[in-house]
Amino acid sequence: MKLPVLDSRKIIKILILKGYDKIGQKGSHVQFKNKEGKIITVATHPGKSVSRGLLRKIIRDLEISREEFIKLSEEI
To answer: What CATH code is carried by the domain that includes residue 65?
Structure first.
């Protein structure tokens, strides 16, 4: 399955659904942290989509399958 083209707002919604909380922002980079202490950074550039390479990295960091990520992105 091919990864969808998403903007940072949808990715942030997915992170929040998976239990991540915003812990800070420096410029256009927003950091999220879960209860185990894992940190994920998302670049928020208005009008631009997140690259598929970065999406793959976020999926690995979330420790979910590609299919689960795609399903979550369709629900939002």
So the answer is: 3.30.920.30
